[in-house]
Amino acid sequence: MRHIVILGNGISGITAARHIRKHSDDRITVISSETEHFFSRTALMYIYMGHMKYEHTKPYEDYFWEKNRIELRQAWVSHFDFDNKSITLDEGTNVPTELTYDILILGVGSESNAFGWPGQDLEGVQGFYSFQDLEAMEANTEGIDRAVIVGGGLIGIEMAEMLLTRDIRVTMLVREEAYWNGVLPKEEAEMIGRHIREHGVDLRLETELEAIHDDNNREAALRVTSVTTKNGEQIDCQFVGLAVGVHPNVKQFSDTALETDKGILVNEFLETNIPDVYAIGDCVQHRNPLEDRKSVEQIWYTGRIMGETVARSICQTRTPYQPGVFFNSAKFMDIEYQTYGQVPAEAPEGIKSFYWEHPGGKIALRLNYREDNNTLTGINNFGMRLRHEVCEKWIKGKKSIGYVLSHFRDAHFDPEFFQRHEKSIVAAFNKHSPKHNVKLGGKAPFWERVWG
Ligand SMILES: Cc1cc2nc3c(=O)[nH]c(=O)nc-3n(C[C@H](O)[C@H](O)[C@H](O)COP(=O)(O)OP(=O)(O)OC[C@H]3O[C@@H](n4cnc5c(N)ncnc54)[C@H](O)[C@@H]3O)c2cc1C
User: Fold this and answer.
1) Is 322 part of a structural domain of the chain?
2) Among residues 216, 252, 253, 394, which one has the fewest Cβ atoms lying within 10 Å of its Cβ?
3) What cofactors does the UniProt entry give for this protein (predicted)?
4) Is there an atom of ligand 1 within 6 Å of 54 CB?
């Protein structure tokens, strides 16, 4: 029986553990310093907002692990001896423990970025990634009324939403000229920017952090009292959320033989340069990224697929990582967002882009398609419920834009009596590109047939 040690109990490590157990009787140990049990990182914000308790973010009952013979160790791994296939665990006692493995899987995740700003280590200044960050945010925001969030991405908007539920005024500093416009095309970035402001956030675009200032308290730990921006403005606050992206958690391997760059370098089989050591999830950097994909992709579903892939390679046949059609989802306050395939901020040459937005400014759709043969290459969806499997099938099956729009009802699944938008979307598309002359097919929902 082999001993498979998995470092990291996030989505990638836990998926690997579950799938290895499905396929084998090997001894499995999962180690993480963060929490004893796997929880959904994407749900952390709901604990702060009071919608969920920590228990609700755990997808498996606590007895699941013992029942499936998956040993859990809550410990920090402080040393890696790859030559002797041994790691050192610091479990909070004075005596570190050595643990040997036959196969080691590294699913060590990410860490929040901080760019060396003066004052970034003050009390009340933090990122938001881990369970410990959630606890720190609870403590740091108790009784305060003013916060500054630095950065305009997915985590920044989550932190803003969290703070608003506690009546804390939020100023958001975004370096770019529109919210998350390195990822979102202009129209979507502007729509979300408007939405953020509608929620009462003081969104400052083209504004960069210069420094974070303290309260000059000699008796206690120094605490944040204000920030200054590069425009020379001072903003008073008692909390600063640093939401300027994350990086793979690889510093810990700097004095080892493990090859890293931005992340842990892996081949298409998720193998590192060290025999019997694999890497999966956020911490990975692909040596040869697949076409249209980035070398580092720090998202939930790719971690899950890497976990499944590595389990298959270890227990069955050596399997290359194939993530399929790119997918990501998030929520911008009240607006749900899904993206499929390729929708870059700027459509590249040879790609046409059709954008439709509902006059209410909270529902939108973008379809990207090839100019030469009209096949769909990407979808951005805001505020509508579209079936994941249908969108994926359209892109994978290289369906034409005309086909997609005429079959749009196959994807849409907003519940009965929700306003449907297929007709206006198709009408807008026919205006954008009359030569296609798309006719909406499928059966209109009952109430639309009755009331038009
Ligand atoms: C607030 C927030 C919201 C997000 N929302 C979305 C979303 O909507 N959609 C989406 O696709 N993605 C989202 N993400 C990203 C997604 O959560 C991550 O891509 C995913 O959780 C990464 O999983 P992982 O298994 O690679 O690593 P992680 O979940 O980071 O797990 C790694 C674990 O390894 C532990 N560890 C590392 N080194 C050691 C060591 N030496 N010893 C012991 N333990 C160690 C860490 O403490 C950690 O517990 C979000 C992330 C955050 C923070």
Assistant:
1) no
2) 216
3) FAD
4) no
What's the 244 CA to ligand 1 centre distance in angstroms? 16
330 Cα–ligand 1 center, Å: 15
Centre of ligand 1 from the C-alpha of residue 436, in Å: 44
Same domain, yes or no: 384 and 349: yes
Q: Is the CB of residue 284 below 6 angstroms from any atom belonging to ligand 1?
A: no
- Separation of alpha carbons 110 and 261, rounded Å: 14
Both 203 and 101 in one domain: the answer is no
Mutation choice for ligand 1 from 14, 18, 41, 321, CB with most ligand atoms inside 8 A = 41
Q: Whose CA is nearest to atom 15 of ligand 1?
A: 299
Q: Is the same domain home to 141 and 228? A: yes
Q: Examine the fold and report which residue of 244, 278, 302 is the final residue of a domain before the chain moves on.
A: 244
With a 6 Å cutoff on the Cβ, whether 281 touches ligand 1 is yes
Burial of 187 (0-12, 13-18, 19+ CB in 10 A): middle
Ligand 1 pocket, residue 110 CB under 6 Å: yes
Q: What does the alpha-carbon distance between residue 342 and residue 445 come to, in Å, rounded to a whole number?
A: 30
Q: Whose CA is nearest to atom 20 of ligand 1?
A: 300
Distance 266 CA to ligand 1 centre (A): 18
The domain spanning residue 290 has which CATH number? 3.50.50.60
Distance CA 160, CA 169 (A): 9
CATH number at residue 408: 3.30.390
The beta strands (E) that lie in 238-363 are given as 239-242, 246-248, 264-266, 277-279, 284-286, 327-332, 335-341, 351-357
Residue 260 is given by DSSP the state B
Closest residue to atom 29 of ligand 1, CA basis: 10
Q: Is 48 in the pocket of ligand 1 (CB under 6 A)?
A: no
Give me the tens of pLDDT residue by residue for the chain, a chain 452 residues long. Answer: 999 999 999 999 999 999 999 999 999 999 999 999 999 999 999 999 999 999 999 999 999 999 999 999 999 999 999 999 999 999 888 888 999 999 999 999 999 999 999 999 999 999 999 999 999 999 999 999 999 999 989 999 999 999 999 999 999 999 999 999 999 999 999 999 999 999 999 999 999 999 999 988 777 889 999 999 999 999 999 999 999 999 999 999 999 999 999 999 999 999 999 999 999 999 999 999 998 899 999 999 999 999 999 999 999 999 999 999 999 999 999 999 999 999 999 999 999 999 999 999 999 999 999 999 999 999 999 999 899 999 999 999 999 999 999 999 889 876 655 667 889 999 999 999 999 898 987 766 554 544 44
Residue 320 forms part of a structural domain? no
In this structure, are residues 5 and 31 in contact, taking their beta carbons and an 8 Å threshold? Answer: yes
Decide if 321 is inside a domain.
no
CB 329 within 8 A of CB 336: yes
Residue 10 CA to ligand 1 center (angstroms) comes to 6
- Which residues span the domain enclosing 199? 114-244
